[in-house]
Specification:
Layout (H helix, E strand, L loop, with lengths): L5 H10 L28 H13 L4 H13 L3
Helix pairs in contact: 2-3
Length: about 80
């Protein structure tokens, strides 16, 4: 295999009409409420049940837990 001149390689690369991938930019949705990260430990079996419930209700675990806490704290 012959060594090619670097300029030949550059010209070959410039002349090829390869389509360039353009990244799509999607704006971040504005959140209605202020959120803060909170971490805690939970029983393994309880976490499995929360995950399953979230899948069954077609919602996120975050939303499921937030709704449960709001319901728990709601005055009678």
């Amino acid at each position: 295999m012959e060594k090619q001149n670097i300029n030949e390689l550059i010209n070959k690369a410039k002349s090829s009409n390869q389509s360039k991938t353009i990244q799509k930019i999607v704006p971040i949705a504005v959140k209605e409420t202020e959120e803060i990260q909170f971490s805690f430990y939970i029983e393994k079996e309880l976490l499995k049940k929360v995950k399953l419930k979230a899948v069954q209700q077609e919602t996120s675990m975050k939303q499921l837990v937030n709704n449960a806490i709001k319901k728990f704290l709601k005055p009678i």
